[in-house]
Amino acid sequence: MDKNKKLTIVDIATKAGVSTATVSRFLNGQLNQMSEKTAVKLQKIIEETSYTRNVAAVQLAKQKSNLVAVIASNIDEYFSSEYFKGIVSILSAQGFIGVLFDSNSNTTTESALMASVYNQKFAGMVLQPVSTDPHLIEKFTNDAVPVVLIDRDIGNGQSITVTTNNFQVTKYAMEHFLNQGFNKVTIITEPINRISTRVERIAGVRSVFDHSQLIEVDSDHLNFSELSDELDINNPKNLLFVLKERLLIQLLANTKLLNEPKIPQRITGFIDTSMPKYLAPNYKFIQQSPFLMGATAAEVLLAQISAKQPEHIKQIVIPSKFE
User: Fold this and answer.
1) What is the domain range of residue 14?
2) Are residues 50 and 96 both part of a single domain?
3) Where does the HTH lacI-type domain start and stop, copy by copy (predicted)?
4) What is the pTM for the complete model shown?
5) Tens digits of per-residue pLDDT, 160-205?
6) How many domains is the chain partitioned into structurally?
7) Do 52 and 149 share a domain, yes or no?
8) What is the rounded CA–CA span in Å between residue 251 and residue 72?
9) Position 293 pLDDT exceeds 60
10) What is the side-by-side strand order in the sheet with 67-72?
């Protein structure tokens, strides 16, 4: 090597037999993310070579690091827009900018977006995953790029996830309706696709009711008139339980039950805004807090970026309320 040539981080990584990301972590004082042996080796090489950082390059990297990617599963959903507002409220106060991407509930689109986010060197990412692959964010994890999952878990046991108490609150709501005399629940949801949120809510229903029916629908091409027989809507002992607010509003707007005040509540589900309460002010729903979930996800992500997030925290639950 030319002795007059200024060493780069790539040269140090090559000499140490580690990745450039590991050298970067060492230079940034993130020693908890490598073995003591690796840290000692890097320190020795840096001292022997009199390596100094390229300050201009460091400053350029810092200029790019105020962007945080937020990949939503579907930006048409009220839930997504609400949690994005929560994320931005925290990021902007700390000088970061949230950039919203839409995977449109498509795993191929999600994969392409994540590749773009990774290559563009965002400071971190908040992801509402469509895929249930436990290796989904492995590349980010290996390069110490902070990632927080929101709403859904991918079951890898390593990702920090901000979610709600899906099973517990559903079970509590179902016990209420069981005591009201219902003996059957018709669950209306988009395709389950092993998505943890939907799986947990369905499990909550079935932990209380022996008789439940599952109907999977496409919210973009929904025709309730075609589903009327399946819904068993005229059965007074059948409770319609909807897993998503968008579907719930469509159902509330397309049934005659709301126009018959003497009929007890026979429709409920998860809500993200106050809109269903305006349509049915006397009904009880499971109210999520997507804004708070988003704000919490942003706080956790910023703590990771500043290397202040305790490693033992893997799941944060923002409780929903049945009211």
Assistant:
1) 9-60
2) no
3) 7-62
4) 0.77
5) 999 999 999 999 999 999 999 999 999 999 999 999 999 999 999 9
6) 3
7) no
8) 24
9) yes
10) 97-102, 67-72, 124-127, 147-150, 160-163, 315-317
